[in-house]
Amino acid sequence: MSTYSKEEKSWMWYDWGHSAYSIIISTAVFPLFYKAAAQDAGISAADSTAYLGYAVAVSTFILALLGPILGTIADYQGFKKMFFACFSLLGIVATALLTFIPNDSWELLLICYMFIAIGSAGSNVFYDAFLVDVTDNERMNKVSARGFAIGYIGSTIPFIISIAIILLAEQEILPISVTVSSQIAFFITALWWGIFTLPMLRNVHQKHYLNREPRIVANSFKRLYETLKQIKQHRAIFLFLLAYFFYIDGVGTIITMSTAYGTDLGIKSTDLLIILFVTQVVAAPFAILYGRLADRFSGKTMLYVGICVYIIVCIYAYFIKSVFDFWVLAMLVATSQGGIQALSRAYFARMVPKENANRFFGFYNIFDKFASILGPLLIGVTAQLTGHTNMGVFSLVVLFIAGIVILMLVPEQGRGQVASLSGGHHGRKTSGLN
């Protein structure tokens, strides 16, 4: 990372730390821990998967409502890092609390998971918006993609430690139960996430902002209202967000529900954890590759590629029956999950005015989060109606098709079309926040 600035590297370190949540809590250990707790309580596999989907839907709905409002306030000097720190702390503390919830309280596990999800996604609203402060337009694809790659690599360290503890407990080599070993994994995740949040808090500052003025909250609502009124004037941004709404729905749902899906197929927990680890390792170089290819062929072209890969994933998921099939599915996902997210973030960041980045990333978040409601609900309802989780995953293909069709309508020249929406004086800050 020697070719990156101190601010860029500090920004990437947060992905390194936060990604431990993504794999251990969102994807691997927690879903298995929760599924076991639900099974012990007499909940069927399809119903427990559905309840997990509903929990994701509720938490993302709450944040979807808050995102644009807090994002608009965060455009003012001094608020962006404060909101980032508060949501990060919420996620880290709630993750640590999982350590103390017994495995027979599956309802409490879901409630705590909802708070973790809110903290994680909320911090990402402002983390993503900080991209405009740490780098310039020409480097956004490269920096955004490298951030995802660093995250995949960083997440493997606490993941390996956690899985080693769990496997040693299963083999009775360690004198602890599997329940306790999983709870240790939750604590490791919280610690890892917290430590690597510190460089971001110390070295990354809001350089693009609106100067503070009286009645910040009232004026923020006014600016938000004006943005909504004028949204039709910004066709490129609106169409991109609409396309993003559909295709990122499928991406996020597959990531979040993959472990529960594998469990329903009868794949052993050990096999699932190994598959998820390899997926993280494979995803890192592919995220970097997407960034480099985007600079050569354009970000939009590579988004098409990523969406097409996910369409293949959804179709293939319907037919899988063995561990080998799940391996193939996981490797397909690994080739594109980081790239499609990184390039979406960079593509959008170049379209919006920097001093209003938080407001527009608030809208980016609301499209992201409302999409995260639709996908899990779609899987949950379909799984319960048919009794087969693979039908739910297959149904996601319509979301990717809708996304690629709408993305084709996005004008190539979208950047700068919203510059008139700043709604006030703006400045450029080069030192730390007050």
UniProtKB/TrEMBL annotation:
Membrane association type: Multi-pass membrane protein
InterPro entries hit by this protein: Atg22-like (IPR024671), ATG22/LtaA_families (IPR050495), MFS_dom (IPR020846), MFS_trans_sf (IPR036259)
Matches recorded under CDD domains: MFS_YxiO_like
Subcellular location: Cell membrane
Domain Major facilitator superfamily (MFS) profile residues, every copy: 236-434
Alphabetically ordered keywords of this record: Membrane, Transmembrane, Transmembrane helix, Transport
Residue ranges of the TM segments: 20-38, 50-70, 82-102, 108-127, 148-168, 180-201, 237-260, 272-290, 302-320, 326-348, 360-379, 391-410
PANTHER family (alphabetical): AUTOPHAGY-RELATED PROTEIN 22
Name recorded for this polypeptide: MFS transporter
